[in-house]
């Protein structure tokens, strides 16, 4: 039994996604070649500044269009949701076949529609969870850049294309260094995601309650409230797990934002202008766009960038880069939500306390 009809999700997303900006064949070739080159250039800048040694031999970024991003993310979702799929298959008899079949198709359409919206916004990402290669080996990750969105954004902002492209690469390369240079981090995120999924209540009555809560969240968001689907469909146990997940993702996103700006002045001459215009764009948009962002939790992600970057700046100002890098020692040295908002609490607990145990890593 499929939780989601993945083929339908892909076809729906590809059908609904808006086309990218108009570019000539030569402009497209140049953008792809430059993004590949700048992704390799960014690697050296990030490693030198962040002082984290990426364990894996880096590869040039994978450059995709909007449909390609949708297909790649569906592949990633299938990997992430595999534990939940296995569990639901084990409980197949508890859910009527017609409910399962219709539910997977409805969910497939919904996932496809969400991906079509996101596929016009995402500039790049470091994909943590990939399907096994033909030999059965699970890749460690992949740095992906969405060329049409990068070109579209640099045009909208009216900034230097080369500078903007390198600036984006610096952020995404920071994530590659984080997840390859800190040996336990990828598995920690995976285990938290698996725990979150398996904390779901799967009986039919509970699923219907979750659907009603999701409908209420949609209505609240449309009226300008703070409702979002993530909060609506969680169990109490999942909220606790999500707090841990959100804390670590706030850290890695904030660290990425900090590094891209801190490295920027040396290699991206117009970084101050880019950051100012990009931040203004993040906060703008139509009422419909803002409603969708709030509903899908995208506004929460924007808040993560700001809170995480503020945490990193405070700790680096107090203890330097090497002091900040104590954060990567083990799960025990990760900041909590409260510590991200009040960095002095993390500094007191980790930097001014007896040495905490560390996991084997590359730092």
TrEMBL record:
Superkingdom assignment: Bacteria
A family per Pfam: Zincin_2
Official protein name in the record: Coenzyme F420 biosynthesis associated uncharacterized protein
């Amino acid at each position: 039994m499929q939780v989601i009809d993945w083929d339908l999700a892909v076809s729906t997303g590809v059908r609904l996604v808006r086309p990218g900006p108009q570019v000539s064949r030569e402009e497209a070739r140049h953008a792809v070649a430059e993004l590949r080159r700048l992704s390799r250039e960014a690697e050296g800048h990030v490693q030198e500044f962040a002082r984290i040694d990426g364990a894996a031999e880096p590869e040039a970024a994978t450059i995709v269009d909007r449909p390609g991003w949708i297909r790649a993310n569906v592949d990633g979702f299938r990997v992430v949701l595999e534990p939940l799929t296995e569990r639901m298959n084990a409980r197949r008899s508890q859910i009527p076949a017609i409910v399962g079949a219709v539910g997977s198709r409805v969910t497939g359409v919904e996932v496809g529609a969400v991906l079509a919206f996101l596929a016009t916004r995402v500039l790049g990402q470091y994909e943590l969870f990939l399907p096994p290669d033909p030999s059965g080996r699970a890749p460690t990750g992949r740095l992906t850049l969405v060329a049409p969105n990068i070109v579209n954004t640099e045009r909208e902002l009216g900034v230097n294309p080369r500078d903007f492209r390198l600036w984006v690469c610096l952020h995404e390369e920071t994530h590659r260094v984080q997840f390859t240079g800190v040996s336990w981090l990828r598995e920690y995120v995976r285990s938290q995601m698996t725990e979150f999924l398996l904390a779901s209540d799967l009986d039919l009555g509970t699923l219907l309650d979750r659907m009603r809560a999701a409908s209420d969240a949609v209505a609240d968001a449309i009226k300008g409230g703070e409702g979002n689907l993530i909060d609506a469909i969680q169990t109490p146990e999942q909220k606790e797990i999500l707090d841990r997940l959100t804390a670590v993702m706030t850290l890695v996103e904030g660290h990425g934002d900090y590094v891209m700006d801190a490295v920027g002045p040396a290699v991206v001459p117009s970084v101050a202008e880019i950051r100012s215009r990009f931040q203004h764009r993040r906060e703008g948009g139509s009422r419909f766009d803002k409603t969708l962002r709030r509903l899908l939790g995208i506004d929460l992600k924007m808040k993560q960038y700001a809170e995480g970057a503020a945490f990193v700046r405070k700790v680096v100002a107090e203890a330097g880069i090497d002091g900040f890098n104590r954060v990567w020692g083990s799960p025990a040295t990760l900041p909590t939500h409260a510590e991200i908002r009040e960095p002095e609490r993390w500094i007191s607990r980790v930097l001014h306390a007896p040495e905490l145990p560390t996991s084997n890593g590359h730092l």
